[in-house]
Amino acid sequence: MPDEDSKIDHYVLEYRKTNFEGPPRAKEDQPWMVIEGIKGTEYTLSGLKFDMKYMNFRVRACNKAVAGEFSEPVTLETRAFMFRLDASTCHQNLRVEELSVEWDATGGKVQDVKVREKDGKGRTASPANSPAR
Fold first, then answer.
1. Where is the Fibronectin type-III domain (predicted)?
2. At 109, which helix (H) or strand (E)?
3. Residue 65's pLDDT is what?
4. Looking at CB atoms within 10 Å, which of 43, 46, 92, 95 has the fewest?
């Protein structure tokens, strides 16, 4: 997008869902969704569904009299991000199992540390091993 161009009054963003990778197809089933009156060169589109395959986007600049041509459409996807929590490094009060995480207010791990301290196998005084970590 051009930097501050005094001739441009606003932008129009259009997007639609698609199931195809790559450039938009000539005939798409989904209609274009329109967002008008965008004043800046950046816009955050909220409400997108997580792990959607692909979406087409295009934009055009408008002044007070006429709208310009649409940009070449681009295709994006909202990929899923997979992660796992590590039971050995999580917060002391979290109980992490294979597919679930549960808050344990009694702090099961804190009790284990206190038992080890009594046996002489507790934490050292270094900040890296402090309970606040």
1. 1-81
2. helix 108-118
3. 87
4. 46
* 39-78 tens-digit pLDDT: 888 888 887 777 766 788 999 999 888 989 999 888 887 7
Question: Structure pTM?
Answer: 0.52
Select from 3.10.20.90, 3.40.50.150, 2.60.40.10, 3.30.70.1350 the CATH code of 1-105. Answer: 2.60.40.10
Compute and round to an integer the Cα radius of gyration of the chain. Answer: 26
Query: What residue segments make up the domains of the chain, in order of their start?
Result: 1-105
End-to-end Cα spacing for the chain: 45
